[in-house]
Design brief:
This protein is α/β, with parallel strands linked by helices. It is 37% helix and 25% strand. It has twelve helices and eleven strands. Helix 3 packs parallel to helix 4 and helix 10 runs antiparallel to helix 11.
């Protein structure tokens, strides 16, 4: 299967390197990036460099597109990919929430949208519980202040996370509002909402915690089939502290599962 990558930043570079090293059944054939010069420089390190093309040409060349662009650019990648009948692999649950019509576009043209697990855990269990009745889902996100700086919600509300010497709760609401206010930080909350009871009913707290060095997410689920709690502590990516290093590897694992004869998990 021919794979394209949209965006060659924190996530895209890792995915490109893994595909270049070899994943059975998958071949990297092209990349789309707004910064062509930077993308070409990064691609030069690959064993088999590929061309940098437009989003439309990427859709025409590929069977699968791994989307790793900012939320603001999600639509310009997703629409041509899905109109071409491609499989779109993404970790941008916030992008999906902001552009819900992409699901109808996929349905109309035979495409698919696959939301990779990203920096979260336990989505299989949440999806299974959602087949029954979920009474409540709450997520508590705690991040070092440097991972939250510049978030639109903080800017709009005049909230500073500089110089903290104790944890401070900066948001208490639902996953939809959290994804809009912290688009580079809580795709995980939006993904949890999409997997379970919906983003409006998924409760979310966000804390700036100067005692932490890792991005930490705790999920608590109360359902008619099970009650469970899960916590993940993600190592920050060097280039982007708001993104956990495991996020890119989640995309790689998702891609591998699309071509593998054996897959673990739903």
């Amino acid at each position: 299967m021919k794979v394209g990558i949209a965006g060659l930043g924190t996530i895209g570079k890792v995915v490109a390197a893994k595909l270049d090293a070899g994943i059975e059944g998958l071949e990297l054939v092209a990349v789309a990036s707004r910064d062509r010069a930077k993308a070409e420089k990064n691609l030069a390190a690959l064993r088999k460099p590929v061309p940098v093309v437009s989003p439309q040409e990427l859709a025409e060349r590929c069977d699968i597109i791994a989307e790793a662009v900012p939320k603001s650019a999600f639509r310009e990648i997703a629409v041509p990919a899905l109109e071409a009948g491609c499989i779109l692999v993404t970790v941008s649950a916030a992008g999906i929430l902001a552009n819900p019509d992409v699901i109808d576009i996929a349905r109309k043209h035979g495409g698919r949208v696959i939301l990779a697990t990203g920096a979260l855990l336990g989505l299989d269990a949440v999806r299974a519980a959602a087949e029954g009745t979920i009474n409540e889902i709450r997520m508590v996100t705690r991040k070092p202040p440097n991972a939250l700086k510049g978030a639109p919600y903080l800017v709009q509300h005049g909230i500073s996370v500089d110089g903290l010497n104790a944890p401070m709760k900066v948001f208490d609401g639902n996953a939809r509002d959290g994804a809009a206010g912290f688009p580079a930080n809580v795709n995980v909350a939006a993904a949890l909402g999409l997997a379970g009871v919906g983003p409006d009913a998924t409760k979310l707290e966000i804390w700036a915690d100067p005692t932490l060095t890792r991005n930490t997410h705790t999920i608590r689920v109360d359902a008619d089939t099970a009650r469970f709690e899960m916590t993940i502590e993600n190592v920050q990516s060097p280039e982007n502290p708001g993104t956990g290093r495991i996020t890119a590897l989640s995309v790689v694992a998702c891609l591998r599962g699309l071509a593998a004869p054996f897959k673990v998990g739903t």
